[in-house]
From TrEMBL:
It is found in: Cell membrane. The lineage of its organism: Bacteria, Pseudomonadati, Pseudomonadota, Gammaproteobacteria, Cellvibrionales. Pfam families: ATPase-cat_bd, E1-E2_ATPase, HMA, Hydrolase. It comes from Microbulbifer elongatus. Gene3D superfamilies: 3.30.70.100, Calcium-transporting ATPase, cytoplasmic domain N (3.40.1110.10), Calcium-transporting ATPase, cytoplasmic transduction domain A (2.70.150.10), HAD superfamily/HAD-like (3.40.50.1000). This is Heavy metal translocating P-type ATPase.
């Protein structure tokens, strides 16, 4: 990954592909700040393939940082020139990331809550990629370093994806200070953009292959000389040749130690400099001490040399990490975010029908675009012309093409099938469903599960214990056989490195989270996988959860003379015109027939507004009749709820009831099977609905739920939830309306439908990406399997160390064998965890 650039007139750029050395036109203005460029100036940065003139080293450094960070679009869409940077070179190096236009790529408002923070809405979240992470202890070090900054409220780092989420107060700490703090301890920060993610993966792969190649070639060459020394020693090899082989081995082993093993030394040094221990500390000690002792023996022609052990040890360590890295990449655990699924440009349709190619970032709501067969949809929108099958598997996990025609909704990230489509944009950029999913994924990374945090703490303490045991081994063997003391201590250092212990939990959680998303459940909070196996009861909402959530107006029964069915219907549609509750969709065909103002929604009751000079209410009978309390009521027909099936809403004004409006909503086909599968897993189901109609018992009977309650207001739902929790039950709540928000917030695990209100989604721990409720019991089964895998991994890591440590202490494990053992132990843990990414539900 390219680092932000720090360039001056006499210092070459760190990324020469971006900063050029020739002199642009001296009469031009600075491309960054707009100030005149002095005659003879040779400061410039290559942007979009063109050398752009800069007026000073500061502008050159800031512009170079923007380009190196993959944020070139800043210059395409900025509305005015940037300010000229001030201050020293270190400040200039990171100052580009304080520009609001640059931050729009990787900084967003924080939408959650934090203990002890009174105004969390003032906080922001920066999504960064952090190069140089090698283990879970690195994660701990980064989090400790950033949390020491005033204004940083929360830090979460994912060791698998190398992504960091920093919640901070922009009024107290600048983004550049966060970058600088990371750089000060040796890590390489950059904005978490799609381009940077892909670049980091490519550079990680190339660097790993280069180092592995150097270590492999060095090991083979040194082993050839080592064999000659071993066998020659017994036959009386000439001392001159023996010393020659030692010197050649030194020359060959030096690149292995100084280049191939450099990541171990770098990570260990920055950890020690910060006063912390990571697993690369014992590894670096092992390599450095063995190499140093062998160099001493070679120079002074005394003792034994172990260049082959050092090279072989380094090679096996690098091989283990390389295989682990490839496994992570293959399983998608180090992806650069969902945004990379979107194209860079789209075909926009003008008013006259002309087609022009424009950047996706330039698209706006209300415009129209043309989708050709095979095109990836760049925005959310509605089809206005054409018919085609669309692949929405990235959003729903459903591989079958979804047929779209005029009026159908399409979503960013999906792929058009066989025919052209014209789409009117309803949401672009951060407003798309794909962007919402990505934000939820980032939110999940902010929450570190207790199991992973515990493993990190155990690993840190274990490293200190390993160092003390190694010292004890050295002291013991120094008294028994001084010539073996050093190598026994070396083996203890190597064989007990807690790589497997640190990887045991995060690798399993990452693989299971990825698989859950493929199955249709997006995890938005880190504790979900830990909590699911302990859940004993699932509480379902009805409308939009057990039912399709797309009710239709089936009947209108006027209760007052002079009121026609059409009039009652149009008044109800006017009241629901701005409501985002699923029931409002039933009136969508009649929106606009009449106008209403003063609209307000009462959670769990209904809506109120003024239409044609009269105040009306629509919703539960009790809520509607309150409006007429104390007034002279107009005689009406029988106000009892009609006996016909469906959900009945009352429409009334200040003089009493006006009409009954009957709605019908189809049951989700997978609901009965989902409830049955939960029961088979020992999980009870319950239905709590705000609907007061006979639909509630009918739906409960259809899906097989014995416990249900109709007319449950939000406070009633919350009271029921607290009562169940007081009895020792662990409760999962699934719903989709604003009235479900209180109980979603209070549940042990909460799930919102993808079609749910934004507020419901923001309070949920997971999002059901499609209407298949069977994803819930599958999630329970996968969470149980994940818990088993974590226990297996931790058990294996503990067993391995329990067996390997005594053997190494007794001198039965040479250093090269210790390196193989440690690498194999880590690989076993990762491979076992990746089984979860291929998990298939039974039946």
């Amino acid at each position: 990954m390219n680092e932000p650039l720090e360039t001056t007139a006499d210092t070459p750029s760190k990324a020469s592909s971006n900063v050029t050395s020739h002199s642009p036109d001296s009469e031009s203005a600075c491309f960054h700040c707009g100030l005149p460029v002095a005659e003879g100036s040779h400061y410039s940065v290559k942007i979009d393939g063109i050398a752009r003139a800069m007026c000073c080293p500061g502008c050159e450094a800031v512009a170079g940082a923007i380009v190196a960070g993959g944020l070139d679009n800043f210059y395409r869409f900025r509305e005015q020139n940037s300010e000229r940077p001030e201050g020293g070179s270190e400040r200039q190096r990171w100052q580009a990331y304080d520009l609001p236009q640059v931050q729009s790529e990787f900084v967003r408002a924080y939408s959650g809550t934090l203990p002890g923070i009174e105004n969390p809405h003032k906080l922001q979240v920066a999504s960064l990629l952090v190069g140089g992470i090698t283990c879970a202890a690195c994660v701990w070090l980064i989090e400790k370093q950033l949390m020491s900054l005033a204004g940083v409220a929360r830090v979460s780092v994912n060791a698998s994806t190398h992504r960091a989420q920093i919640v901070f107060d922009p009024h107290r700490v600048a983004v550049s200070a966060i970058f600088s703090a990371l750089a000060s301890i040796g890590y390489r920060p950059s904005p978490a953009t799609a381009a940077n993610s892909e670049r980091m993966l490519q550079q990680e792969r190339r660097g790993a292959i280069r180092r592995l190649g150097v270590a492999g070639l060095g090991t083979m060459q040194v082993m050839m000389f080592a064999i000659a020394l071993y066998f020659g020693g017994s036959k009386g090899i000439d001392l001159q040749f023996e010393q020659f082989f030692r010197w050649v081995s030194l020359v060959v082993a030096t690149p292995v130690v100084c280049y191939a093993a450099q990541p171990f030394f770098g990570a260990a040094w920055r950890a020690l400099r910060s006063g912390h221990l990571v697993m690369d500390v014992p590894v670096s000690l092992a390599i450095g001490l063995a190499y140093g002792a062998s160099v001493y023996a070679t120079v002074f022609d005394t003792g034994e040399v172990y260049f082959e052990s050092v090279s072989m040890f380094t090679f096996f360590l690098l091989l283990g990490r390389f295989v682990e890295m490839r496994a992570r990449h293959k399983a998608g655990l180090a992806s650069g975010g969902l945004a990379q699924l979107l194209p860079l440009a789209a075909l926009r349709l003008g008013r006259d029908g002309e087609v022009e190619s424009v950047p996706v970032a330039a698209l706006a709501e209300g415009e129209s675009i043309l989708l050709r067969p095979g095109d990836t949809v760049p925005v959310d929108g509605v089809v206005t012309e054409g018919a085609s099958g669309v692949d929405e598997s990235v959003l729903t996990g459903e591989s079958a093409l979804q047929q779209k025609q005029a009026g159908s909704a399409v979503f960013a990230g999906s792929v058009n099938g066989d025919s052209p489509l014209t789409v009117r944009i309803t949401a672009a950029g951060s407003g798309t469903r794909l962007s919402t999913i990505e934000k939820l994924v980032e939110q999940a990374q902010l929450d570190k599960p207790a199991q992973a945090a515990l493993a990190d703490r155990i690993a840190g303490r274990f490293i200190a214990a390993v160092l003390m045991i190694s010292v004890a081994a050295f002291v013991f063997w120094w008294q028994q056989a001084p010539e073996r003391a050093f190598w026994v201590a070396l083996s203890v250092l190597v064989v007990t490195c807690p790589c497997a212990l640190s990887l045991a939990t995060p690798a399993a959680l990452a693989a299971a989270t990825l698989r859950l998303q493929q199955l249709g459940l997006l995890v938005a909070r880190g504790h979900v996988l830990e909590a699911l196996p302990r859940v004993t009861r699932v509480i379902f909402d009805k409308t939009g959860t057990l039912t399709e959530g797309a009710p239709q107006l089936r009947a209108v029964h006027p209760l007052r003379t002079g009121i026609s069915e059409e009039a009652a219907r149009d008044i109800a549609a006017a009241l629901e015109a701005r409501n985002n509750h699923p029931l409002a969709r039933a009136f969508r065909p009649w929106f606009g027939n009449r106008a209403a103002d003063g609209l307000r929604s009462v959670t769990g009751c209904g809506v109120e507004g003024r239409c044609d000079g009269q105040v009306y209410r629509l919703g539960a009978p009790g809520f509607v009749l309150e409006l007429a309390a104390g007034a002279t009521a107009i005689p009406v027909a029988d106000p009892k709820v009609p006996s016909a099936q469906g959900q009945w809403l009352m429409l009334g004004d200040q003089r009493g009831p006006v009409a009954w409006l009957g709605l019908g909503d189809a049951l989700r086909p997978t609901a009965p099977d989902a409830v049955a599968m939960l029961a088979a897993q020992g999980v009870n189901s319950e239905l709590l609905s705000g609907d007061q109609s006979a639909e509630v018992p009918r739906v409960a009977e259809c899906v097989g739920i014995a416990e249900y309650r109709a007319g449950a207001a939000p406070e009633h739902k919350l009271r029921r939830l607290k009562a169940l929790q007081g009895e020792g039950e662990r409760v999962l709540m699934i719903g989709d309306g604003i009235n479900d928000v209180p109980v979603l917030s209070g549940a042990d695990v909460s799930v919102a439908m993808m079609s749910a209100a934004d507020l419901a989604q923001s309070r949920a721990d997971a999002i059901l990406l499609q209407g298949d409720l069977q994803a819930l019991p599958r999630a329970f089964a996968l969470a149980g399997k994940c818990r088993t895998i974590i226990r297996q991994n931790l058990g294996w890591a503990i067993l391995y160390n329990a067996l390997a440590l005594p053997l190494a202490f007794l001198g039965l494990v040479p250093p090269w064998a210790a390196a193989i053992g440690m690498s194999l132990s880590s690989l076993i843990v990762v491979i076992n965890a990746l089984r979860l990414s291929r998990w298939q539900p039974l039946g």
